[in-house]
Every structure is written in structure tokens, then in C-alpha cells.
Amino acid sequence: MNRRNRPRVIANFALTVDGKVSTRAHTPSTFTSPRDKRRLLEIRARGDALLVGRTTVAADTMSMRLPDRALQARRRARGQSAQPLRVILSARGNLDPAWKVFQSRGAPRVIFSTFHMPGATRAALAPLCDLHLLDADTIPLEDVLTALRELYGVRTLVCEGGPTLFRQLVELDALDELHLTLAPCLFGGAAAPTLTGTNPAFLATIRPFRLESLRVVADECFLRYRALRR
Ligand SMILES: NC(=O)c1ccc[n+]([C@@H]2O[C@H](COP(=O)([O-])OP(=O)(O)OC[C@H]3O[C@@H](n4cnc5c(N)ncnc54)[C@H](OP(=O)(O)O)[C@@H]3O)[C@@H](O)[C@H]2O)c1
Questions:
Q1: Domain total for the chain?
Q2: Which residues of the chain register pLDDT less than 70?
Q3: CATH code where residue 150 lies
Q4: Where in the sequence is the domain holding 157, given as residue range(s)?
Q5: Dihedral sign from CA coordinates of 35, 41, 43, 46
């Protein structure tokens, strides 16, 4: 995807030594340290918007907020809003207005979904967020990125997953920077998702990265990669 039509995209994940991002049951990613959680907020704070897929918002009971006042102050000093826009992607639209993300104060929320979203959910969510509904079974991620850039002025987008969404970013060649936390544990399980999900197919082409930073803190390894464009 042409870089001019989209924000700069940064993704952040934690993975086990065997490359898993969650258990087979897709239970929450609670396998990293408080230091990693802090790092997640620091990376989140870079974005004009935070993008997450519906399963991750639900599984990790996310508020998608940036609660840290010092990070908020740094954003304001850079000319950004105090917190990044909260953006959720869901084809089926089974989003519960009682979720933390809809009940917590913070940045405005934007939902990209389809006409499959139940009418009652639409009515309940309409006062809480900007709803973009498409007459389709799925949403081209390219359109989401363009809309974020053009309608919301998003220049830097942070994606915190999950893997289904991440894989689409990679397939679109729309990923610029990848942050990984390597956690000192093994999950095993062929059915447990890796960074690119549970899709058994290889990517169409190998995606290369350059390692830009590697830091070891206690038992964890913090890595930052830059995507190399073809
Ligand atoms: N270790 C980590 O750093 C990390 C990070 C994030 C997530 N996780 C884990 O990953 C697991 C979730 O994995 P996942 O791959 O299922 O999560 P996901 O990518 O967050 O969610 C997938 C869902 O997002 C929606 N979606 C994604 N792309 C879409 C598109 N183009 N158009 C419309 N809707 C789209 C769909 O929602 P609908 O089904 O509503 O249509 C889809 O089922 C959880 O266990 C979570 O804890 C781990």
C-alpha cells in the first residue's frame, strides 16, 4: 500500500520463546512483566490512534486508554491530543457497550464494522463512538488506514493486535515498525496463535526487517525492528 495514503504504522506484541502470542483458548496475554506493560504504554503514547481487532479488545478487556499523566503531558507538548484515538475493527459487530473501552473516559472511539452489526448494538454504540458501517462481509484494511489518515488526521498509528489484524497489515505491506517483547516462557501448542495468527498458509513473500534495537531487562528481551520495503 502506498505510504502517502496511510499513517506510519507501528505494531507491538509480546511473545513466548516459542513464538506464541496467546494460549490456545485465546486467553489474555498476562505472561510479561510490569516493565513490559510500562513499555506498552510508552509505545501506545506515540500514536495519534490505537488500532485493535475485536477479539483482542474482548479477550484482554481493554480500555485502550493512556492512563499515565506524564505520558499524556509529553503528548500535549508534541502537539498531540492527551490520549490516542481508540479504533476497533469488527466485521460481525458483536461489541458489548458494557465493555471497559466503552465505559471508560479517554479519547474518542471509532468503530469500523459492517451492516452485520446487530441493530440494538448500533443504537447503543452510536452515542459512544463514530460508527463506520460497510455493506460488506469484511473491511478492507487499506480503506481503514486511508480513512484514519484522511478523516481523522492520523499520522502515526499504533496497532496492538491481535494476530489476525497484524497479518493483514503485513500482507498489505503497511507495517513500518515492529516492537516485540520476548518473554521467558514456552506455551507449546500448534493451535496457539503466533504473531501472524492461526492461518496455516505461508505469507505470499518473506517479509524482511532490520533489527534496530535490542535491550535485555531481567529475563525479558525488548526488540525493535524496522520493516524493509520491497
Ligand atoms: N501477546 C500479545 O502481544 C497479543 C496482542 C494482541 C492480542 N493477543 C491475543 O490474541 C488473541 C486474539 O487473536 P485474534 O487474531 O483473534 O485477534 P484480533 O486480530 O484482535 O481480532 C480478530 C477480529 O477482529 C476483527 N477484524 C480483524 N480484521 C478485520 C477486517 N479486515 N475487517 C473486519 N473485521 C476485522 C474481526 O472481528 P469480528 O469477529 O467481530 O468480525 C476478527 O474476528 C487474544 O487471545 C489476545 O489476547 C496477544
A1: 1
A2: 29, 230
A3: 3.40.430.10
A4: 3-227
A5: negative
Q: What is the DSSP string of the chain?
A: --GGGS-EEEEEEEEETTSBSS-TT------S-HHHHHHHHHHHTT-SEEEEEHHHHHHTT-------HHHHHHHHHTT--SS-EEEEE-SS----TTSHHHHS-SS-EEEEEETTS-HHHHHHHTTTSEEEEESSSS--HHHHHHHHHHHH--SEEEE---HHHHHHHHHTT---EEEEEEES-----TTS-BTTBT--SPPSS---EEEEEEEEETTEEEEEEEEPP-
The binding-site residues of ligand 1, defined as CB within 6 angstroms of any ligand atom, are 13-14, 21-22, 26, 28-29, 52-56, 59-60, 89-92, 94, 138-139, 141, 160-165, 168, 193, 197
For residue 128, how far is its CA from the centre of ligand 1 (angstroms)? 21
